[in-house]
Amino acid sequence: MPQIRQDFDGQTVITTFEVTPGTAHDLLDALTAAWDQVISKQPGFLGGAVHLNDAQTRIATYSQWQKRGDYQAMLRTPEMRTRNREINQLCRSFEPVMYEVQSVFDT
C-alpha cells in the first residue's frame, strides 16, 4: 500500500486517463490486469492504486517506485509495451507524470 510521506525519496507517478462512461470499465479491467499480472511484480515497485471519478470520464493511477529507473524499466518491458498499446485504444488520452512529494497533511 502506498505511503505518502514528505521524506519519501523514491519516485511517485500519477497517470491520468481520459475515458468515456462506455469505456471506463473496459479500461479499468485492462489496468487491473496489468497491475495484478505485471506492474506489481516489477523490481522497485512499492505500491499503487487505481481511481475512477464519479462521472466515469477519468481514471487516475498512483504508484510509488524505489527509483525513477525502476518505473522506466517497467514501461520498457515487452509485456507493458504491448499492454500500453491496448490501453491506448481504450482511452482518449493518457499521461503519466513523475512527481516528488512536497507536503503531507494528516489529522
Low-confidence stretches: none
What is the radius of gyration computed over CA atoms, rounded to a whole number of angstroms?
A: 14 Å
Estimated helix fraction? 25-40%
Spatial sequence of strands, sheet with the most strands: 2-3-1-4
CA(first)-CA(last) distance: 19 Å
Mean pLDDT: 95
DSSP strand count: 4
Main sheet makeup: 4 strands, antiparallel
Number of helices: 3
- How big a fraction of the residues is strand? 25-35%
Shape: globular
The helix/strand order is: EHEEHHE
- Classification by helices and strands: alpha+beta
Which features would summarize this protein structure in a list?
107 residues; alpha+beta; four-stranded antiparallel β-sheet; 33% helix; 29% strand
Structural summary, described in words:
- The chain is α+β, with helices and mostly antiparallel strands.
- 33% of the residues lie in helices and 29% in strands.
- The protein has helices at residues 24-37, 68-76, 78-89, and strands at residues 11-18, 45-52, 58-65, 93-99.
- Strand 2 and strand 3 form a beta hairpin.
